[in-house]
From TrEMBL:
Cell cycle in keyword set: no
Domain of life: Bacteria
Domain N-acetyltransferase: 744-897
Keywords: ATP-binding, Ligase, Nucleotide-binding, Tricarboxylic acid cycle
Transmembrane segments: none
InterPro entries linked: Acyl-CoA_Synth/Transferase (IPR051538), Acyl_CoA_acyltransferase (IPR016181), ATP_grasp_subdomain_1 (IPR013815), CoA-bd (IPR003781), GNAT_dom (IPR000182), Ligase_CoA_dom (IPR043938), NAD(P)-bd_dom_sf (IPR036291), Succ_CoA_lig_flav_dom (IPR032875)
Source species: Bradyrhizobium algeriense
Pfam families according to UniProt: Acetyltransf_3, ATP-grasp_5, CoA_binding_2, Ligase_CoA_2, Succ_CoA_lig
Annotated protein name in UniProt: Acetyltransferase
Claim: Ligase is one of the keywords in the record: yes
SUPFAM superfamilies: Acyl-CoA N-acyltransferases (Nat), Glutathione synthetase ATP-binding domain-like, NAD(P)-binding Rossmann-fold domains, Succinyl-CoA synthetase domains
Highest classification ranks of the organism: Bacteria, Pseudomonadati, Pseudomonadota, Alphaproteobacteria, Hyphomicrobiales
Length: 897
């Protein structure tokens, strides 16, 4: 697993600092001071061969001479010494190292490469190099050179920038916000963002995870970890480089639209990560997520003594997609009883400028009891009539009483005290009430909570590998692309493009190729006979945008006009692009659909995230209009609808004035088909359909271009080589017969299997649960089961076995790969009353088959020594069984594949 040994690094019982210096201002001295100041409770040793002691702390000359075997070593030594120190630590049994030192370089033959190879010999994990270090308040460890140590709390921060991490600590100190952990990852030689997402997702002390990202190294691993974490708790990201332009010119419109930052946006959206624009918004988001849980809806009630600020907050709420809560008649009557007659009678609940603490308290109690809202924002403008701190104290009292009464699911309460002293902010923060400088900031914080609930719901949906609505002719499509590649081409010609789209049942304008004017006239006459006029377009592999050379002539009505236009098009193209290979013209029927919308749909290839699906407003000015949205495939209809809804042109797809609505799901279906095409034919490196005409009758592709190239496998493991998100692996569905004719259906697990898991666990004995989980398990929370059911199949797989007669779940087997995708750890659980019927053997064989198909080199697991049945099955399957050298009641089992 990618969390392998991370607990040893982030919650160690013993630490050695290597390279500390007595010189003030040095990194080693700063880290030594921080470790001592934080009062780390475990064993601590100092290594420096040049000194006997540093600042009163005795040193030793080498890691080998430390009086204990350190779980974690913190390295600040010169870069050239790092690999040797890691090797020395590995021989002592050290679990991992934080490499603060910089200058190790990159790539084969570098000092970093030597350090990594040394660590792999001993299974050590590495954080860094070139990082600030780690701060883990839960174990009183500050192994960093940050100026301050954060308080303990429930936020985790993973940062690619040491400066950002240090800044977050300073901000948190001012707002009474604490952290479960802060990790500066530096160059990510080993431990990366995905590993830490896995770790903090499972960390009970962490309620929300904050990320500062500059670039992603392994997109599939990141997407897998982010999707898993976001299902359990909020994940918020700030990504730098928003305005950076793509490094290479795009060959297609979709390629131009799919800029690097837009693709990151799409990736974060698909992963369920909340993206914020800057550090201030990250701080505000942390303020909210660190203190509150997501509400069931998006209805916000606002309580204020200033009508103007309340209305501004309502405006911002509506702008962000929230809903002002209604004031029900019953609630209005209750507010009438405790407020003066001049109160606003609506939301925002303006309780008038002379409000005192008692009036605030009474109104807040009524709003908290009202089922018509999902959260309450309390706002205060200071006046000379009542002290702002007294009002804050009254609000805190009401909220505290309410939370005590509604311990399981209290509504979120947020606060804004306009222009208030820091002392009031401290009061509110100390009571766990997130507070903000403006109403707009508070509303944004509330909407972050709403968005988190929405993304968790969206993540529970699993797109199928193959949509059931259509059956494309995959073989025909692959042959078209393979033939073009064999011909040394990087573009399909227009006839090939039409055949490709036909294979995927995407309607295209009839298209004919003509090498000269006479062939063009012959095709045109057939079109004229059907009552249509003709369009001519230049046909050249080297001229991508036909209009740039005057290569399109519309609405031709006679053979002579076609003959003349063909000659002119060819002459213009040869004059303007003499180097281009020109093979003639395309002849198409002129399509007149007066009320159709012009759209662009396509595929683009991103160097980090692989294939991206693009949708937006079409036409020749698509880059200038820039109304587009992106999504990572695979897609289903719901994901395709969501992609469309993120554009302005989506509003035009509805009916307006005398224009009928576009045929329902016609556009979304084409997007799903394109995503499927990208999965089936990864050699498609770019695709434009521009324009796609859409109206009440359906959709029609008028023009399309396809770029092709050899497959570049971007991601490890099986599945589409060009997808950062793996589709649901339906190819692993099996109908299996075990002993005595018992038939079971085995398939990859889905999020909606949670109720089936709960039901199955009722039929598992306490003894079998202890053998599986190594501890007595009396109850299973939603969060616990969610971790088991909500996979995205990139690094983990679980197969469920369902009794075909009863439709009940009877067994589960799972495997999770390690961080370098070489071996996987397995686990299996069966219903206790159905053991001994061959199901366990069958599921183990299936997970072994799956591991082989993924290219894993080994399967391993830990089995209690008393679990003799499992150990016997492992031996029969060829596993090597050894006693664990530390935990003597555990056996380590391993199968080399």
């Amino acid at each position: 697993m990618s969390t392998y040994r991370l607990k040893n690094l982030l919650s160690p019982h013993s630490v050695a600092l290597v390279g500390a210096s007595p010189r003030h201002g040095s990194v080693g001295r700063a880290i030594l001071n921080n470790i001592r100041k934080a009062q780390f409770k475990g064993e601590f040793g100092l290594v420096n061969p040049r000194y006997h002691e540093i600042d009163g702390v005795a040193t030793v000359g080498s890691i080998a001479r430390v009086a204990f075997a350190p779980e974690l070593v913190v390295l600040t030594a010169p870069a050239r010494a790092i690999a040797g120190l890691i090797d020395e630590a590995g021989r002592r049994g050290t679990a991992g190292a934080v490499i603060v030192s910089a200058g190790l370089g990159h790539g084969p033959g570098s000092l970093a490469d030597a350090a990594e190879r040394a660590a792999q010999k001993y299974g050590m994990r590495l954080i860094g190099p070139n990082c600030l270090g780690i701060m883990m308040p839960c174990v009183s460890l500050n192994a960093s050179f940050s100026a301050h140590m954060p308080a303990a709390g429930n936020l985790a921060l993973i940062s690619q920038s040491g400066a950002i991490a240090a800044g977050m600590v300073d901000w948190a100190a001012q707002r009474a916000v604490g952290f479960s952990g802060i990790v500066s990852i530096g160059d990510q030689l080993d431990v990366d963002i995905a590993d830490l997402l896995d770790y903090f997702a499972l960390d009970e002390r962490t309620h929300a995870i904050l990320l500062y990202i500059e670039a992603i190294k392994d997109a599939r691993k990141f997407m897998s970890a982010a999707r898993a974490a976001a299902r359990i708790k909020p994940v918020v990201v700030v990504k730098s480089g928003r305005m950076a332009q793509g490094a290479r010119a795009a060959a297609t419109h979709t390629g131009a639209l799919a800029g690097a930052d837009a693709v990151y946006d799409a990736a974060f959206q698909r992963a369920g990560i909340l993206r914020v624009s800057d550090l201030r918004e990250l701080f505000d988001c942390a303020e909210t997520l660190g203190r509150l849980k997501s509400p069931p809806g998006k209805r916000l009630a606002i309580l204020t003594n200033g009508g103007g600020i309340g209305v501004l907050a309502i405006d911002r709420l509506v702008e962000l997609g929230g809903a002002p809560a209604d004031i029900s008649p019953a609630t209005r009557d209750k507010l009438d009883a405790v407020l003066p007659p001049t109160w606003s009678k609506s939301n925002p609940v303006d309780i008038v400028g002379d409000s005192d603490p008692a009036r605030y308290a009474a109104a807040l109690e009524v709003l908290l009891a009202d089922a018509s809202n999902d959260a309450v924002l309390v706002m205060n403008v200071q006046t000379a009539i009542a002290r702002a701190d007294d009002i804050a104290a009254a609000v805190i009292g009401v909220v505290g009483k309410y939370r005590a009464e509604r311990r399981m699911s209290p509504k979120p309460v947020l606060a804004v005290w306009v222009g208030a002293d820091q002392s009031i902010s401290d009061l509110l923060s100390g009571a766990g009430i997130p507070n903000y400088q403006t109403g707009g900031d508070a509303v944004l914080g509330f909407m972050h909570l709403v968005r988190h609930r929405e993304v968790v719901e969206a993540l529970a949906q699993v797109p199928p590998a193959m949509p059931s609505e259509f059956a494309p002719d995959i073989n025909a499509a692959r042959q078209i692309v393979a033939a073009a590649l064999a011909d040394g081409r990087s573009w399909l010609d227009p006839i090939e493009v039409k055949r490709l789209l036909d294979a995927y049942e995407i309607a295209v304008v009839p298209t004919f190729a003509a090498a000269n004017a006479e062939e063009a006239v012959a095709h045109a006459n057939a079109i004229f006979a059907q009552g249509s006029t003709v369009v001519l377009k230049i046909m050249s592999r080297d001229i991508v945008h036909k209009s740039d050379v005057g290569g399109v002539v519309l609405n031709l009505t006679s053979a002579d006009a076609v003959r003349k236009a063909t000659a002119e098009i060819l002459a213009r193209a040869r004059s303007l692009r003499p180097e281009a290979r020109i093979s003639g013209v395309m002849v198409q029927a002129m399509v007149v659909r007066a009320k159709a919308r012009e759209l662009i749909l396509g595929l683009a290839d991103d160097p980090t995230f692989g294939t991206v699906v693009v949708f937006g407003r079409g036409g020749t000015a698509v880059e200038i209009i820039n109304d587009k949205a992106l999504a990572l495939p695979p897609l289903d209809l719901q994901l395709a609808r969501s992609l469309i809804e993120r554009t302005r042109v989506s509003r035009l797809l509805c009916a307006y004035r005398d224009v009928p609505a576009v045929k329902p799901d016609a556009v979304a279906t084409v997007l799903v088909k394109l995503a499927q095409m990208a999965a089936d034919i990864p050699e498609i490196r770019g695709l434009d359909i521009n324009p796609l005409l859409a109206d009440e009758a359906g959709v029609l592709a008028v023009d399309a271009r396809v770029v092709i190239g050899r497959v570049e496998r971007k991601f490890r493991g099986s599945g589409p080589a060009n997808f950062a998100v793996r589709p649901y692996p339906s190819q692993w569905q099996r109908h299996i017969e075990v002993k005595d004719g018992w038939r079971v259906f085995v398939r990859p697990i889905r999020p909606e299997d949670e109720p089936l898991i709960h039901e199955m666990l009722k039929h598992v004995t306490m003894q079998d649960l202890r053998l599986r989980f190594f501890a007595p398990m009396k109850e299973f929370s939603h969060e616990f089961i969610a971790r088991l059911t909500q996979l995205d199949y990139a690094r983990a797989m679980a197969f469920v076995a369902i009794d075909e007669a009863t439709n009940k779940l009877v067994g589960v087997v799972r495997i999770h790969s390690d961080s370098i995708y070489e071996s996987g750890e397995y686990a299996i659980l069966l219903r206790s009353d159905l053991k001994g019927r061959g199901l366990g053997w069958t599921l183990m064989q299936m997970i072994i088959e799956y591991a082989k198909s993924e290219g894993l080199k080994a399967i391993s697991g830990d089995v209690l020594a008393e679990n003799t049945v499992m150990l016997a099955m492992c031996r029969s399957l060829g596993f090597e069984v050894k006693s664990d050298p530390v935990e003597h009641d555990i056996c380590n089992v391993k199968l080399t594949l």
